[in-house]
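Continuing from the previous page of notes. For each protein in this section, the sequence appears first, followed by its structure tokens. Read the first protein now.
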Amino acid sequence: MSEAAAGEVQGRAERLARWTSAYRPQAGVPDEFMDADGRPKGAWPRFLDRLGDLDELEIGARFVSAVRRIRDTGISYRIYGDKREHAWPLGSLPLVIEQDDWETLSAGIVERAGLMESILADIYGEGRLVARGLLPAAAVAGSPEFMRPLVGVKPPGGRFLKLYAADVTRGPDGRWRVLADRTQSPSGPGYALENRLVLTRAFPDLHADLQVERLAAFFQAFRDGLAVGAERSDPRICLLTSGVFSSTYVEQAALARYLGLLLVEGDDLVMQDGALHIRTVSGLKRADVLWRRIDSDYIDPLELNPASRLGVPGLVEALRNGSLVVGNMPGSGILESGALAAYLPNIARHLRGRDLRLAGPKTWWCGDPDALAEVRDNLGALSLRPVATPPKGAVRDAILAPHALDAERDHLLAALRDRPFDYVAQETMPLATMPAWDRTGGALRLVPRPFVLRVFAAATPGGWRVMPGGFCRISERPDVEPLEMRAGIKSADVWILSRDPVEAVSLIQPGSTRVRRIAGHLPSRAADNLFWFGRYVERAEAVIRLVIAHLGSVGSAVIADMAGDAKAPTALRIRALLDEWGAIEAPDLPTGTLAQQALSGRDTYGSALRHSLSARANAATLRERLSGEAWRALADLRDLLEIDATQALPEAQLLGLAERALSHIAALSGLAQENMNRTAGWHFVDLGRRIERAINTLSFATRFACDAATAEDLGVMLSLCDAHVSFGARYLQGVALDPVRDMVLLDPFNPRSVAFQVEAIARHLGQLPVLRVDGLPEPHQRLASKLAAEFASGEAAEFDGAALTRLENEVERLADAIATRYFPNGPHALRPEKLVGLA
């Protein structure tokens, strides 16, 4: 061995010893890394030995890059009741499991998933478990998750569950134990996928060398399983979300993008002729499969929860007639009831003839008199929890641990006396621990921290298939249980270390799909958001250009005397327009204060920052349609414009900031032009920008290219339209009114002229779906044609102040007509469902 190689070996050994020297599992708590005698076990020695090739600085740098990617791509989550998005808290170490151990766990998950499917089929079918006394009728009928209208409804394809999940940990004996079954609409597979993508980018060599099992094949099989039971051979699959304020909306958007599903909300859907359809800009389109990510009772306000605004009236009827496949079936959440866990062992023995491979903690339902008596006698040694899922905002597995019973004993005893059937009691079981980094004292070391692993199984055409990985939650503190994502809880990727080399698998398999060029269908709501995304970006740009003009940086001598003079007539017009647009609080502010407020004011609804935040809010509803680069450009623009209001920046710094902001907006525009497919979505983004640019340019011209415009006014007009260079190349003399008007209003070659925008709008509308079947133009098309003709045939001298104001109002009317035709904006709108030809 060479001296260098020997040095590397010694350095790795020193690092491993330093990292693990203080690692001490808690007494009586199973640990993934060390056994009770302090010996390393499982896959961890193999993983840490390979990780030891990197020093602390390199490891830190790689995790910094991972955190940056999370930020750039907008991976986030919400806590119920909190409108803020929280950056996704990826832990610094994966949970690593050997293949043999994983195969044992997977076999138990498959067995448990099959049992859950059988129980659901019985509860909503013949009811033999209740008839034979294996399951109390009160535990079924008394559950809020029991959907009585679904009794007797057989799901197309025969599957109640398309996706099953179980939260697991190690028991005291080191074997895997189930903490909870997830059958309602299990969350987490998308975050597991994002964790894998981020961590693989950070440690590609480590991931490959350890032969980590890949996830793509599982997701492909899951998508195939969703389609089972659909009436059509090439079904349209939708993912139903409650919207952008869902705590896991980002995950849902990521899954829709990765799996090629249509992300829809309840307002996007309508029942017609006994089948579910999507409202699109092309008319109603048949939905064959619905992967729901909302609770069961919200799915149909007509037959289930009448207060729901998230579902579709009449959807249950589509389930009855077999025209729709829903995963998971409404009512499947009853399997998450704590009461069922008390009877699951006996049910398993009855249906399967043996005990479950994966057991859970021993459970007593307090609605059973014998169980209640036993619970009362042993209350201090048990954990008490509600039978049903706690209300939104509460910890979903809210557990009253034994140490809390002394203070609340009287209250609990009263509750058990008055409504015992609302509670279950379980034997206490500490969560297992896994290694996590800790820097207490400055040195990097490994410490044990509690974790919960969520494992997923998909119902595929070939049977149940377990994801070779999962969604792991790990606590930052030893005394906090990671039962849900919240402050102090991180997520971890899950690496299954294969015995054999792992084949590279992609979601797209060569030869598996026939070639086709179908643009896809755009829901009306998505079109609305894309349109306004374009408009808000353009509004932000207009405000920024006004600020730059006011600060006097136009590169032309014609208004050089105005720079810094807040009382110059042209400057007063700029200030008045910013005030009219709501970008500033008052037009008589000091120049620096005005510029900073127009750029970064949070309390001024028309500031560039507020428009960029509005664009970002629209983009948040379109995550499955926007690239990561677009989201990163939006984040950069927001970060640039978010200036501390208490910090007054000098004018020169504000000018530089405004110019950099224009660069970010130019990047966004370039991404839309070069990266978006020329489908309906792109048309609406560009329509929004063209509409808003035409309105803003006409508004500029009304003030800076009117009959009384001065040379300074005309110079600002050229600056606002980025036309100084073109004007100087075309005209050797100084600025004059008609040439300026011609360039910014009528020149079809100038990409910022109104004529250019109107022509682009007409082209976009010509490529979008039509409502009439007689070939005659629709109202919005007529308006666009009239405007295009006026700008194509007009002369500069004709566009005086009155004409400019009239034309600005006409473009506003055109925007309203487009909204009326394509967007879900009111009871009198021309709804797309009036279109003929349902496909």
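Done with the first. The second protein uses the same format. Note its length before scrolling.
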Amino acid sequence: MSTAGPSRGPHVVGRPPRSKPKTKSKQKLPHTKQVQKLASKGRIDALEKQAMEFIPAEDLQYFADLPISEATKRGLKKSFFLTMTPIQSTSLPTSLKGKDVLGAARTGSGKTLAFLVPVLEILYRRKWGPMDGLGALVISPTRELAIQIFDVLRSIGQYHSFSAGLVIGGKNLKDERDRLSRMNILVATPGRLLQHMDQTVGFEADGLQVLVLDEADRILDMGFKKTLSALLSHLPKSRQTLLFSATQTDSVADLARLSLKDPVHIGVGEANAETTTTKMADDSTTSTLALPAGLQQNYLVCPLDQKLSLLFFFIKTHLTSKTLVFLSSCKQVRFVFTAFCRMHPGIPLMHLHGKMKQTARLETYTKFTRAGGAAVLFATDVAARGLDFPGVEWVLQVDAPEDAETYVHRVGRTARYQSKGKALMFLMPSEEEGMLAALAKRGVEVPKTKAKGSKVTHVENQLQNLAFQDPEIKYLGQRAFVSYLRSVYLHKDKAIFKVAELPTDRFAESLGLPGAPKIKFLSREVAKQKKNKMKDLESEESGEDGETSEEEGPRKEEVQAKPNKNGVRTKYDRMFERRNQNVLSEHYAKLLDGADAAEDEDFITLKRADHELDNPDADTTADISKRKQRMGRAKRAIMEGGLGHKLVFDDEGLPHEMYEMEDGGEWIDGHGGIAGVKAAGDKFAEGERGKMKEATVLDREEAKEKKREKKRRRKEREREEAGMGGGKSAVAMGAEEDDGYVSPEFDLPSEDSDDAGQELWARPPPEKRRKTGTETLEEDEELALRLLRGK
């Protein structure tokens, strides 16, 4: 950084500039640069030696005590990072020496700084410059986490001269390509990074110094295992690798064996101790999960059809809290957010899921992060890993987590950095025993609590009203129903998630739907049992003794409305009984026609059947409309005997075809031979010419009459305007304002005039101002007729 001399005041006009000081500065400039380079080299060498020989003290707490550069210390201090967390004080002395690190610590413990500080220091000590290309690469599982890491990097690295870039999906690929080759540090998601490595010309990572894998277990769980393997094949083996995760799984261990060289294992629990491991009965080892110290966690048992009512009741009773609500699928998040917004709970509502556009996701993430007061964010597990939402007081898990690791990451969004927070999990009766056992196996004990059922406000009627009034709400509810059952069906732990035991009918009613769609992926045995029970009930109601076969059994094409607990049928029950709801048929058609077939294929069909008619003459034709019956008979008649014939009868009563052709020879003989036929043709042509002449005369007379009427109306208008304009004559008016009328001397000549055409061609056409519209067309027609008459 160059230093400026003392101020010399404003420049005086006419005063010659001083050239002597500039000459001296030019002579001293090379010497100054050389001294600065030598001094910088000396500082970097000394810093390198300090880092390699650094032995951390037992009470190491401050970043200022680490062997790091002054630029990094200033950036940390400017960002208010002064004291280190246990994972930082344990891992930084090792990673600053250039060794590979496999780190595990509880969520919210500050793992981001544990790998960003070494990234800056390694590149600084190796004198990395803009022309050296990519020096450090940070891979994150989600876009929001990548954005958060990039913001922290900009904050603590503001006094360094490195160029940093963010490469995530959802942005313009061409803009990223233009800047990619100039970046020293990249923060990226796996998919977009691999796309650039395969397609972007000039993007190389041959000189990579540091590779960081943040939330490595989540990267593998999201299906990026093959992508990550392809990325590692592009990177040089002579690099430093830092792998951090809140949970250590077998897949992470496998990844560490493939990507790390002699890594130093660093595991930090509650009291700065290593994470303990437990020996299982099947000789497998499992680690005990660490939770934040300030976390208060509970669970309650809630039936599936009461979850939304209990959630809405919780929001209404916590209007001053910042709450994060986790649901299992994107479509559930969208439905709950849209429906609750229409119900106006009195608190700002937001939603975040993986199917949103990148701009919307970033806007929601920023808005909820900066929200200092009360707010509710409905989200999927895309917000469960690594994201730091300041001030989150409550974390609600409306849908149970997939496993214990997911539970730990979800509740880790609160009680971060020695702050306090609360977590509440909703469990169905079929999930309670299995989920508690899975959590206890990993050392997580969750106490049980109860909700005040008498004060819970049920929202089924409000959702039914919304679904009937707004087709979008009903459509979103149908998709949410299917996506939830699909997520339960796809969970690996079948001891916890039992899709066959879910009360699907009551769940559909709780979403405001008139009935539950039929789910194909339920087991055939369970479906058969339910069908047999329905048949038995119907047979008992109808008074039949024997069982009805499947082919003869009645089919319910419509969901019947059920009375409420008091036995009273409401207006909404009658509404949903209607057979023809045209306003909703479009959304049913989307499901029937296979909307989003790539996602929901073979997972949903409505309770409707197409009745195939093998024999059209059977008794079942009575159920078909009369129009279809007539069409069927007409088709059969055509197939059997061809098209029908229409006959006409002559004067003698003989039948003939409607368009029967006469015999050519007989017709010529009947009309006097060839000469007679020719004479008849000439006579017919002469008659047609006479008709045309008569029509032409009538047309001319009509045109003349129209012209006279037009001229008369124009004269009347001129007289009226002359009277109103203070005595201005009609002649003067016509001279000033020409409306394109042709004077009478240019009218069509009479039929008796032989030299009319010669006079017409001899006189020059009058000058007039032409107008657009019907007047110009009429004048053109008139002139064409006059030219024709002249010939």
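What the second structure shows: The longest strand covers residues 295-301. The longest helix spans residues 673-724. We return to this in next week's lecture.
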